[in-house]
Amino acid sequence: MVFPIQISEFIIILVLFVSFSSAIGAENLTNKGVHAIGDGNICIYGKGSNILQLFGAPYSTPSILRVTLSGTDSTSSERISGTAIWNHQIIRGGSVISTETDFISSLAGSFIREISATAEVTYDLEVNPDQGYKNYSSLVSVIPEKETSTNQTNQTYLVEVQKSVPLMFSYLPPKGRYYRLMLSGNATFSPVDSTKKKIRLKLLPGKSILFVIAGESVDELDKHTKQLNSISIDSLMFLNKKQWQKFSIFHQEITRKINDSTIQNAVDDVSVLIKSQQGADGGVLAGHAYHMGYVRDQYGVSRGFLAMGHYEEAKKILEFYYQNWNQSGFIKNAQAIGFPNIFHRHENDEVEITGYLVLQAMDYYTKTNDLPFIGKILPMLEWAIDAQKRNLVDGMLPFNGDETYIAGGILPRKVMYNGSAEATLLFIEGTTRFLNCVNTYKLWNPEKAADLKKTVQECADHYRKNFFQNGILFTNNPERETKIRYPASRFGVCLHPGHGGYASEVFHFKGSLYFCKDCMAKDNSMVVVPEPEIFSIVSVSLFPFYINSTLFTTPEKKRLIERVIKYYHNTGNVSEKNVILGSDYGFFLDGLVAVDNKLKDEIFLRMMNLRDDSGSWVEYYNSGRAMGCKCRPWESGVNIEAAIRYWENKQENHLGI
User: Fold this and answer.
1) What is the pLDDT of residues 138-165, one digit of tens each?
2) Which of 123, 234, 276, 286 would be 36's cystine partner, CB 3.0–4.6 Å?
3) 462-475 confidence digits (pLDDT tens)
């Protein structure tokens, strides 16, 4: 087809949204990294020795604790290799005045900070929901259990979080949570106000320990407290190290083969940081701003786990999906971690995420040959394929409203029902690999497989006409929207010019516009339906390389990457306005390695230099400055896999393979 609408090539219209601030508070995060410490039940996000969030068990629960270093002291932090144990040094006037070690004890359901100070150090503790949930402050109470000003005597506060405090957005957990703040040694708690929700923690010279104990009930807190009092801190830390050693042995098998210390360190950092964010049920947090398991994000995580040798962790993500699907009959944009049947829905949840789900299962199968597990989750994969088939129009699938560039403002939400190059390619690639598997092992009858193959082939045959012309991969195709009947309502964002924002349900106004109930009742006589546009953005041009697409020929792939290379040489960037997605360099590196272009060395270094001091990548970068959500498993999974693939390519070239 001929695209009749004005084309904006390589458009990055990034509206730097602040929706994540409701989840992480109002802090203006800098390039200093945010790290995660977690055991699948309790998780903290920290920045230096500050604790930004503490939550669990399970992971999809509201955060209620912040711990902030007072005064002008600075912090130097370092993770013990192969573990999620973090050491902090508090520095005053160039001298270390306190050394502090953070870890989580799975045995006693607790976050533990062990402290050795030579001078007085002060922290401020705030017991309250995150900034965006301040209206729920009255549902969190702090009750003194044992108060004393005498050193070496435990002080404890009981924290009750009622179940009416949302875990994220407006989603409520089925249960409340209890925590116990306990202090022992040469330190004191001093409440700042009568609510006891602001507490001054004063560390005096000597040794002390801060415990945050978690439980579903006071009885469970008492059980964990008794366990803490019956075993030494050294023993608890020893057990924690042993647990991490059992995990780390798998990625250490990979790093032993790599003679590049930058990649070796990055593999260890990313493995531990992602594993810390994986809940006991297998779901992985999408970073410190998002306490749910998002499908697109977990695809990159799974790919990263597989590249780093953590096959069992990759399998657990698929198991997480299967358990949710088994109970509900569907998968949505995001699933609560630890609480089945709590979903974050968005527009068109039957597409794109379902394509990722099928492709993820096939990636796992390719690496492990675990056919019995594929047989177990086969009904879920069949559902995911059927869901995509229902949405096909002229061989095109539409956009999902949250798992695409739409969520970040890179594409306007008006394209929702346009054809999506990415979603359609995911269906073609994932379903093709699925058919290869079921045909090889005769998991389907031949007629059923042949019928699906015909559908996939039709999409593949139309793909170039729909999205790919003259070496340009267009992100969207408005023609799909001209042939659909708009649904009367949907979950998602209100598109009224004077409103915007997520609503539980929005209603069709006209054209691509959907309004919430209140906006539908307004005088909308002056509202104009936006004109269609066609976009071609860098990330989508590189996407075929990331998923190892077989649809494109070698010359076509070279044309795709050459356009990005030319843009990079002309501007020094991989997207306009210096704003890039955190995964863009990983995608770019995948493409350069695939065609063995010498620019790969430069892009590898630029990608690795974007890591922050926690060892992870973040959601966005602007001129190299981190923006958005930090400690991101998706970007970190994508980029670490690209780094490993880059090294493997260098080895092959060195050996002349």
Assistant:
1) 999 999 987 544 444 578 999 999 999 9
2) 276
3) 999 999 998 899 99
The DSSP string of 324-363 is HHHHHS---SEEESSSTT-EE--TTTTSSHHHHHHHHHHH
- Which residue is it, tokens 């023993």? 235
470: number of Cβ within 10 Å:
5
User: How many other C-beta atoms lie within 10 A of the C-beta of residue 517?
Assistant: 13
DSSP H or E run through 187: strand 177-191
The residues facing 68 across adjacent strands are 124
3-state secondary structure 189-221: EEECCCCCCEEEEEEEEEEEEEEEEEECCHHHH
Secondary structure (3-state) at 604: helix
pLDDT of residue 138: 92
Backbone phi, then psi, for 620, in 5-degree steps? -140, 160
Single-letter code of the amino acid located at 552: F
Cis peptide before 58 (omega within 30 of 0): yes
The two tokens of residue 163 are: 């179940």
> pLDDT confidence of 622, banded at 50, 70, 90?
confident
- Amino acid, res. 319: E
| DSSP designation for 32 | S
Neighbouring residues of 235: CB distance < 8 A, sequence distance ≥ 6: none
Q: What is the rounded distance in angstroms from the CA atom of residue 121 to the CA atom of residue 126?
A: 17
Q: What is the C-alpha to C-alpha distance for residues 623 and 577, in angstroms, rounded to an integer?
A: 9
Q: Does the predicted TM-score (pTM) go above 0.70?
A: yes
Which residues are within 8 A (CB) of 585 and not within 5 positions of it... i.e. 6 or more apart? Answer: 574, 603, 606, 607, 610, 639, 642
For the cut 80, the answer to whether the pLDDT of residue 267 exceeds it is yes
Angle, CA of 297, 301 and 307, to the nearest 5°: 150
Helices (H), 1-151: 21-24
Average pLDDT, the chain: 90
Cα-atom radius of gyration of the chain, to the nearest Å? 25
The pLDDT tens digits for 502-558 are: 778 999 999 999 999 999 999 999 999 999 999 998 889 999 999 999 999 999 999
**What are the Cα distances from residue 585, in Å, to 22, 187, 287, 536, 624?**
28, 47, 19, 17, 12
Report which DSSP code applies to 170.
T
Sheet containing 502-510: which strands, arranged edge to edge?
489-493, 502-510, 513-515
Q: At 250, list the tokens.
A: 């798998």
Whether 598 and 608 have beta carbons less than 8 Å apart is answered as no
